[in-house]
Amino acid sequence: MESKRETTSSNDVAGVAVGRNAGLSDAIAAHGRYEIQCFDRDGNLKWSDDIENLVTTAGKNDALDKHLSGSGYTAAWYIGLIGAASYTTGPAVGDTAASHGGWVESTDYSEGSRPTAAFSAAAAGAKALSSALAFTLSGDVTIKGCFLVSNATKGGTTGIIYSAGLFTAGDKVLQSGDTLQVSYIASLT
Predict the structure, then answer these.
(1) CA 163 to CA 146: how far, in whole Å?
(2) What is the overall mean pLDDT for the chain?
(3) pTM here?
């Protein structure tokens, strides 16, 4: 009897692929919004407007320095008004309290200093004033916007400008005795 020989061959193939995200990315942007209402001397609402502002480089640097330094920090912030005199281009990221060439501050209100911005606790990535700040206009004046600064002195040139912006609906002509109610919300997105 003849024997038969059987042969078999076997091949195994394995493949492996590994995917890896080599880096993580996260971005954060500082934003702010002013909400303004104007009332006449009898308390009637004349108009309202919102300002989506820019946050200056000095403001961003100050926030980073204070937050990441790990030491105690107490801030005092104030709201000012942007006036019409010598207006050229408006707020820019390079603005400082000593040098903001595109705009000037209006000091045509009866309060002795810039109103103090008292903030509520942050929630959902935003921090708002605990109540609106009042400016009682002391003359007929054109206002273009608002700014947030760390110095209370009307017309002062020291401190840090955190943010500034212009009215979305254009310049506002105000009369003596009008009152502006200004709110501000800062956010990180």
Answers:
(1) 8
(2) 85
(3) 0.82
